[in-house]
Design brief:
This protein has 125 residues and is α/β, with parallel strands linked by helices. It has one domain: Nucleotidyltransferase, domain 5. Helices cover 29% and strands 33% of the residues. The chain contains three helices and seven strands, in the order H-E-E-E-E-E-H-E-H-E. The strands form two sheets. It has a five-stranded mixed beta sheet with strand order 5-2-1-6-7, covered by helices on one side. A two-stranded antiparallel ribbon has the order 3-4. The longest helix has 15 residues. The protein is globular.
């Protein structure tokens, strides 16, 4: 039942989401990682997680540690070849990426290969 409602909700979210394009001096940050999760039916599977936010969403009150006021999350319980297009769709929804694009990740093979192919000028940390 959750899958049925999830698919319908995804259609609504995809139609209604609008994002302000990046300003010329903004940086777009994309974080990715994977973690193993034990499922009842399939045993151990890797869940992929992504988070995307703009540099303007980082608020540092009184020169203290930055807090991120707004970001987009994606969690995906399938393989990386179905996860990465969904991340790319969110990145593209911010407009033309002529600005800085920074990827924060652990450098695992699937993430590194994904970042290098479509985003050769991106910074990887």
């Amino acid at each position: 039942m959750a899958n049925i409602y999830g698919k319908e909700l995804l259609k609504t979210i995809a139609k209604t989401r609008t994002l302000a394009p990046l300003k010329p001096d903004e940086v777009l940050h994309a974080q990715t990682d994977g973690s193993m999760l034990f499922t009842r039916d399939g045993g151990w599977k890797e869940v992929k997680v992504g988070r995307i936010f703009k540099s303007s969403d980082c608020i540092a009150p009184n020169d203290k540690q930055c807090r991120i006021s707004h970001s987009h999350y994606l969690a995906h319980l399938e393989n990386s070849t179905t996860f990465t297009p969904k991340m790319e769709q969110i990145i593209k929804s911010y407009g033309s990426i002529k600005q800085w694009l920074v990827f924060l990740n652990d450098g695992t093979t699937w993430i590194r290969q994904w970042v290098e192919d479509p985003y050769p000028n991106a910074i990887s940390i």
